[in-house]
Specification:
By secondary structure, the protein is an all-alpha fold. The protein has eight helices and no strands. The chain is globular, with a radius of gyration of 18 Å.
């Protein structure tokens, strides 16, 4: 891959990874509710799951969607339904010390990795990266390079949201503030679905 194309791709990966989206809203909420250490599996799951998604798209999965558009539509709506479920869980989260019915656990590595396959923003990022930055020569090698670079750039980018959430933790020790924060994060997660349901 030419150096100038590589630089442009890294910038694309950084901007798309650090801007708000379902993953980052969930990591912010997890940082607040569980802290950085307990959210690390969630962060790693996002980066590794996304790496696998980019490889799959690069090796031809996007062609399946072009040939059978209904499969992509079904995936979009399944992803939307799952995001609504996650928003509901975030809205009901209590403080990590809570032992009552509203206590929750952070997302696991496997859950976060699997979520990338139904995350609308992840699909847009993966297809955009492959369609825009993948050179025609050395196809498989460049797919692996792009996927690996994306994961390397993605991990610290999503980590910023977890750390930000952790820094807010002390201010949100008040149960009412924490409840309002979690409901707000859930609302933002639902709002992130707007393009999914308005795009044809």
């Amino acid at each position: 891959m030419p150096l100038e194309l590589l630089g442009a791709f890294v910038l694309f990966a950084f901007v798309t990874s650090i801007t708000p989206g379902p993953n980052n809203m969930m990591l912010l909420a997890s940082g607040v509710n569980f802290g950085v250490r307990r959210t690390i599996p969630h962060m790693l799951g996002i980066s590794i799951g996304f790496l696998l998604l980019v490889v799959a798209v690069g090796l031809g999965l996007h062609q399946l969607f072009e040939r059978f558009p209904v499969t992509y539509t079904a995936l979009r709506y399944a992803g939307g339904a799952y995001l609504l479920y996650l928003a509901w869980k975030i809205a009901r989260s209590g403080a990590p010390e809570a032992k009552g019915e509203h206590s929750a656990k952070p997302m696991t590595f496997l859950q976060a990795a699997a979520f990338q396959w139904v995350n609308p923003k992840a699909w847009v990022m993966a297809i955009g990266a492959i369609a825009t930055y993948l050179p025609a020569n050395s196809w498989i090698g460049n797919v692996v390079l792009i996927a690996t670079l994306f994961a390397v750039v993605n991990l610290p980018s999503v980590g910023v949201w977890t750390v930000l959430g952790s820094l807010l933790r002390r201010w949100l020790e008040d149960p009412l503030r924490l409840r309002l924060f979690n409901v707000g994060m859930a609302a933002l997660l639902v709002a992130s679905l707007y393009p999914l349901f308005t795009r044809t």
